[in-house]
Amino acid sequence: MLVKWEVWFYQSARGESPIGAFLEDLPVKARAKCLAYMEQLEEHGFELPRSFIAKIRGNIWELRPEWAGTEYRFFYVAMVGRRLVVLHAIKKKSQKVKERDITLAEARYAEVVERWQHEETPPIRPRTN
User: With the C-alpha atoms ordered 48, 51, 55, 60, is the resulting torsion angle positive or negative?
Assistant: First the structure.
């Protein structure tokens, strides 16, 4: 039996979810496509083809949905308990992902690990549709 992954969203120390806000701001069909990709990620994890996912750097991976000619990128990491934590999301506007977006995802990953070990405020929250 295939054990599924769970997709969780990064949450700031103030309880804000930039990933949830990013998704809410998308057109309905683009949001549906992104969420469908997340469902595939939950189902298949790292077995998805390169058209769906790619390794960025270190522990950072990207989910790669596209809708109506616009590419979206969701930067995520694998955590204990078969959790995939989405750390950052962008509309991709150039051929190459910007260094600042990768650096932000890495910083949020470090923050999640630190808060997970030392704080009561949850650093992540389950994905909701």
Answer: negative
